[in-house]
Amino acid sequence: VMSVIAWIGLGHMGAPMAGNLVAAGHEVRGFDVAAEAAADASARGVRVTASIAEAVAGAEAVFTSLPRSEHVRAVYEGPGGVWETAPASALLLDTSTVDVETSRWCHEQSGARGIRFVDAPVSGGIAGAAAGTLTVMLGGEAEATALARGFVEPFAGHVFELGGATSGIAAKLANNLMLFVSLLGVAEGAALAASLGLDPERFFEVAAVSSGESWPLRTWYPAPGVVPTSPANRNFDATFTAALAEKDLSFAVEAAGAAGVRTPAARIALDQFERLIGEGYGAKDCSLIAKFASPDGRI
Ligand code: NAD
């Protein structure tokens, strides 16, 4: 059944996700502050609007895909924002990766206004967004997450209803902690193999069918010409920026600290992303972290 759906934030992830809702037959009205993002979404069949109010008018579902917690807070609570302008009957779904506190605030403030909110972070990157194969992690009241399932299906490969408020974000932050700690292991193992004289392609073949196998090994192997999807093949142009990796990992470490969970490995990974950003590489791919493992600091 066709629905009217609003989409706020048409960036690397938002535009292809919204495009998959269009392809599924929905009418999607999108808003972004950046003209370039809006143009990309328009080419995917999204009807671009000039304001949040215009995008959300009459919408059954309102998605957000925004860079950071402060953008999510501004889009919800700002003048002319989602809470002020969306129909009370709309289901709000935030697919951004935010901190647990921001997600909790979205649930509480939406609830206080009588509006249903679901935290709906995603995993699978820009390729998964385009292919419609993202893993979607839903947190909220059972009735709301059941309704959310239908709306996210066109861009999802896997949908999990994980329980109450912030449980989607909890899964996303824990997942990304694992991802970035694994990435450091891949970087150090790859550097060791190369410095002990192994050919990178040959060693990759071994590790890929051994106990060192992981998603960053398969996807981001940090030597040129080994795996086609690796940023190392393209001067570390970003598929996932170091700046966003630092953001996700800092939220995970912060949540762990609040819960008394000890995460020394995640802290080392976080330090290295901060160093990468400090050296001016925040907009490069997070897999450039491998330079710190290399004997001469080069890849
Ligand atoms: P992005 O920066 O490409 O897109 C965000 C968009 O939001 C931009 O186009 C920006 O102009 C827009 N925006 C900012 N403020 C706005 C406002 N007030 N009103 C309307 N639009 C506004 O980021 P992205 O890579 O698409 O990531 C979006 C979210 O998804 C982030 O929270 C990120 O952590 C998460 N995420 C990203 C990936 C990935 O691989 N890129 C994977 C999973 C999750």
Automatic annotation (TrEMBL):
Q: Which SUPFAM superfamilies match?
A: 6-phosphogluconate dehydrogenase C-terminal domain-like, NAD(P)-binding Rossmann-fold domains
Name the active site residues: K172
Q: Which Gene3D superfamilies does the record match to this protein?
A: N-(1-d-carboxylethyl)-l-norvaline Dehydrogenase, domain 2, NAD(P)-binding Rossmann-like Domain
Keyword Protein biosynthesis (UniProt): no
Record-annotated 6-phosphogluconate dehydrogenase NADP-binding domain positions: 5-161
Q: Which UniProt keywords apply?
A: NAD, Oxidoreductase
Pfam families per record: NAD_binding_11 (PF14833), NAD_binding_2 (PF03446)
Q: Where is the 3-hydroxyisobutyrate dehydrogenase-like NAD-binding domain?
A: 167-291
What domain of life does the native source organism fall in? Answer: Bacteria
Which Gene Ontology terms cover its molecular function?
NAD binding; NADP binding; oxidoreductase activity, acting on the CH-OH group of donors, NAD or NADP as acceptor
Which PANTHER family did the record assign? Answer: 3-HYDROXYISOBUTYRATE DEHYDROGENASE, MITOCHONDRIAL (PTHR22981:SF7), 3-HYDROXYISOBUTYRATE DEHYDROGENASE-RELATED (PTHR22981)
Family affiliation: Belongs to the HIBADH-related family.
Q: Please identify the protein, giving its name as recorded.
A: 3-hydroxyisobutyrate dehydrogenase
Species this chain originates from: Agromyces mediolanus
**Which lineage is the organism of this entry classified under, starting from the top rank?**
Bacteria, Bacillati, Actinomycetota, Actinomycetes, Micrococcales
